[in-house]
């Protein structure tokens, strides 16, 4: 955020504030209410967050016996409680006491923003507590803008985006954790006395280990399709902290914001610091209900091109790794085109001048084409893609360099590292992170992308990778007294780079990859169209990873590729049918060397691609209903997408392990219109005989109350039998 423009906005707002305020502020969407008591001269108080209140309940709210809680607690005056904000004022005073000064409303293009101006009772120090709502999304975005009008800098030590009290009871949280190649694993636990912190310290990527989103189930163990759920997503690309403090009160105190560890921010006089948005949703339809609200909001407002169908692509990585050649790329392009694919993405290995990129030990930063590998350059490949009738995309990793690179030789001062020490290196033993807080580095990245795209206007897709954590605390650009701002400045710089690229290339498709799923977060998605869910393409493990990831992110953003067998990460052997059926539940693509596939395999992929095109609108824009969780021990996972008008649906069923004569549950569908009739068609069919319900018609009511009996195995010739089984059913309303 630009401090200058915010400051002038502040002056305007400030002048108009005294004119209009009301004691109770009601922030609402179609189905949600958040109510605050904003009495001028008093602390801002939280009154309610939940299902939408009508006028009568709003009137009576003050008499419900609810405890009086501060809406944005500041440290220093009422010290025993946890605070959202903790600052050291310019004279060393560590206490802050904020009272309401006024409320203002601003209309944006699609949204309404309410700002409640708080002022310290002694210092010219202000906090705007902000809320944004949209006419057509069940989401309340909240954040703060902290303004220092003291004569000298104020040090921000804690600066949460928001605080939300959650009434104790039988409250559970579900959140995602994991690691590289095992991202998005669901962790589910009851909140207990003490502090629960979900956090990240990677510095660059923030969703390998834990995720910055959480579901809070208010009435017992989380369920997919019933129960009251608050969903919260911190929209930030850097280090974050989600904290639940269960103290001696009746509440779990939830705080969400930038991780303050090693990140004190020195707020200059007249500077405004805007905290990242916390997106809040509330559903009475269980976890899936909250997911649907996240997905809908994301597609409309928080994801690049959320209303545009994604192309089906082949990525070269697992097919050839660094072994890029012109002929090799041409043959892959021809193959994906012949299977009906629409785009080819050339991954790592295409660049380098003095140090050609042969492996991961060199060349990042030297973004010139390696003409030994590609004699006709990128332009030649783009032209070739055009001949095959498909689009062309390319891999870059702009935030990084290697010690073995011309860039590092020219600009050793551009990398993050502490003064007087040799940096710790990352991938390949030579990788280093560039200092994105440095405007020269920002210009370098923007110019590099601009050059690549302007010289090759045919490039329509970029895979933007980031394969290293900040392993060295130190910016060679920032002053000594601002070293603690390194993480925050990095992500401000990253945001500025993304803004500038998007301003010039609004139509480009950009994938956020970060050693796999390291950048699945709503901080980056406004600029990115999708993310790579994981470097692990094993279909079985993907069932689990994609399940968790779908809690917060829509299928349109989840890149999901058919890869080789044995799988390159797990070495598991999984039949192509199953690999296809899992990949088809996300943004379908391929990550394989087609040259190594048989014609029969290619034919099955071509069939899958053709059928995916048919269901693509439902998968990518539909409503998700998760039905049977892979975590529940029933040995299957099942979910579905229903088109918004309920005229079409896609049902997925994956068996997880194989035992003879086991008793798998019959799955009841959800999300259909009970009064409509649906015709059932199996997709990617490999069985010799159609399923008994193939082409038959059932009511939505029957499908949702009883469901279909899915056979445990595939009806194929004996020599083709395996222990794997999966189904994709397409339902169309009559
Ligand atoms: C990372 C990505 C992979 C691939 C390689 C290339 O690991 O996650 O998909 O692009 O880098 O080096």
Layout of helices and strands:
Elements: H1 3-17, E1 24-28, E2 32-37, E3 45-51, H2 55-60, E4 69-70, E5 85-88, E6 98-107, E7 111-120, E8 125-134, E9 140-148, E10 154-167, E11 172-177, E12 185-190, E13 194-199, E14 210-217, E15 229-235, E16 240-246, E17 251-258, E18 265-267, E19 272-274, E20 277-283, H3 286-302, E21 313-315, H4 317-320, H5 326-338, E22 343-346, H6 377-388, E23 391-396, E24 400-402, H7 406-410, E25 431-433, H8 439-455, E26 459-464, H9 486-504, E27 509-512, E28 530-532, H10 539-549, E29 558-563, H11 576-583, E30 587-591, H12 599-621, E31 623-628, E32 636-642, E33 648-655, E34 677-683, E35 697-699, H13 700-705, E36 726-733
Parallel strand pairs: 21-22, 21-30, 22-23, 23-26, 26-27, 27-28, 28-29, 29-30
Antiparallel strand pairs: 1-2, 2-3, 3-4, 5-10, 6-7, 7-8, 8-9, 9-19, 9-20, 10-17, 10-18, 11-12, 11-14, 13-16, 14-15, 15-20, 16-17, 24-25, 31-32, 32-33, 33-36, 34-35, 34-36
Helix pairs in contact: 5-6, 8-9, 10-11
Bound molecules: alpha-D-galactopyranose.
Helix content: 10-25%
Rg from Cα: 27 Å
Please state the oligomeric state of the protein chains shown. Answer: single chain
Q: What's the CATH topology name of the largest domain? A: Beta-galactosidase, Chain A, domain 5
- Number of E-type strands: 36
Shape assignment = globular
CATH first level of the largest domain: which class?
A: Mainly Beta
Proportion of residues in β-strands: 25-35%
The rounded distance between the terminal residues' Cα atoms is 51 Å
Q: Given the structure, what is the number of helices?
A: 13
The assigned structural class equals alpha+beta
The largest pleated sheet is described as:
10 strands, antiparallel
CATH architecture of the largest domain: Distorted Sandwich
